[in-house]
Amino acid sequence: MNPYAAYQTQAAQTASPAQLVVMLYNGALAEVSRATRGLEASPVDIEDVNDCLGRAQAIVTHLAVTLDMERGGAVAANLASLYDFCRDRLVAANVAKSADGLEAVTSVLTDLRDAWEQGCVNGQAAAAVAG
Fold it and tell me: Superfamily assignment of 16-130 in CATH?
């Protein structure tokens, strides 16, 4: 295993649940970015773009299916709607082989990732003060 892959594996194994969510958002954002660059390239590498968008869809689907709708209430329902929006745009971009809609996906996922990161930082700071 290369050192970077080993580091990523170790990071995932030692991350808190909130940090894992941030990692998922970062992964989805990286795939959307790669797909966008691929769609803007000439010639377009259809297979690579399809793979990137497929991985982004899989990550967003994972985020959606792991929502706890009972305990999450309105927040979980709102997140589910945002994930549906992102998946719809990712599928449309893949079918049309067009970057249209990917900027909106990037915006939504970035905002959610930033909120989770802030929550992780604040949560760790609060735990350090309380501990």
Answer: Flagellar protein FliS (1.20.120.340)
Please, which residues have CB within 8 angstroms of residue 44's CB and are 6 or more apart in sequence?
38, 97
Note the pLDDT of residue 128: 41
Burial 115-130 (b: 16+ CB within 10 A, else e): ebbeebeeeeeeeeee
Q: How much of the chain is in helix, strand and coil states, percent to nearest 5?
A: 85, 0, 15
Q: Which two tokens stand for residue 112?
A: 């959610």
Instruction: State both tokens at 45.
Output: 């590498």
Query: Tens of pLDDT along 36-86?
Result: 999 999 998 999 999 999 999 999 999 999 999 999 999 999 999 999 999
What average pLDDT does the chain have?
A: 88
